[in-house]
């Protein structure tokens, strides 16, 4: 939200946002605004810079007793309805079993999804997104292959989208410094680990 008021400072740059919008509560995403407020922020950002420049990430997907597959299916459908006119892409990600988050994650009995849960949830998500054919729906990385359900693996750093935004073709290959499951093109990471204050317990970028 504070970024929206500073977008004029980026007027000489071409960019797009990846906007993570999950439905989990304060027990998981500890210092975030309410879901409805974040949806409103998403819409404001989209209206200001263009919906093609705001990618919705439902990431990471996981389950426990409170946030089970039924919860995720219903929440995803509700958020998709809210964002249907404000984005052109949704990326689905799954929780990673990073060593340094295992302690916090295990306290809340958060689990990697079983194959059956993945299939059940993905089918429901695809049925939801089929109602909005103008929104591309894919997974982040090839880690979980859902192509047999019509859900391709996507790119966070996306050559096609970058070329569309900047208005000319670029010469870029798959980033060799990323995991083999990553499809992203070559890029330079300007972010800083250990800097976010949101306190999401699944975050791989905070080790402290």
Could you characterize what this model shows?
- The chain has 208 residues and is an alpha/beta fold.
- The protein has five helices and five strands, in the order βαβαβααββα.
- Helix 2 runs parallel beside helix 4.
- The longest helix has 15 residues, at 35-49.
- The chain is globular and about 45 Å long.
- The two termini are 25 Å apart.
How large is the share of residues in beta strands?
5-15%
Broad shape: globular
Strand order of the largest sheet: 1-2-3-4-5
The number of distinct β-strands equals: 5
Topology:
Blueprint: E1 17-20, H1 35-49, E2 54-61, H2 69-83, E3 89-94, H3 102-107, H4 115-129, E4 136-140, E5 153-154, H5 159-166
Parallel strand pairs: 1-2, 2-3, 3-4, 4-5
Helix pairs in contact: 2-4
In short:
The chain is about 30% helix and about 10% strand. With about 210 residues, the protein is α/β, with parallel strands linked by helices. It is globular and about 45 Å long.
Annotation keywords:
5 helices; five-stranded parallel sheet; alpha/beta; 5 strands; 12% strand; globular; 208 residues
């Amino acid at each position: 939200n504070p970024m929206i008021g500073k977008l004029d400072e980026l007027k000489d740059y071409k960019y797009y946002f990846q906007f993570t919008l999950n439905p989990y509560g304060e027990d998981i995403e500890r210092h975030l605004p309410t879901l409805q407020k974040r949806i409103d922020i998403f819409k404001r950002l989209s209206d200001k810079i263009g919906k093609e420049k705001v990618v919705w990430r439902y990431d990471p997907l996981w389950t426990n007793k409170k946030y089970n597959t039924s919860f995720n299916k219903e929440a995803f459908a509700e958020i998709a309805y809210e964002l249907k006119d404000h984005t052109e892409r949704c990326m689905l990600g799954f929780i990673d079993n990073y060593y340094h988050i295992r302690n916090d994650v295990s306290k809340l009995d958060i689990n990697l999804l079983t194959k059956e849960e993945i299939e059940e949830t993905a089918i429901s998500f695809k049925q939801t997104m089929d109602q909005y054919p103008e929104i591309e729906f894919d997974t982040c990385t090839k880690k979980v292959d859902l192509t047999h359900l019509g859900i391709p693996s996507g790119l966070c750093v996306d050559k096609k989208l970058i070329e569309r935004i900047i208005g000319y073709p670029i010469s870029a290959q798959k980033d060799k410094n990323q995991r083999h499951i990553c499809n992203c093109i070559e890029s330079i990471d300007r972010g800083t680990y250990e800097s976010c204050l949101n306190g999401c317990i699944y975050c791989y970028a905070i080790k402290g």
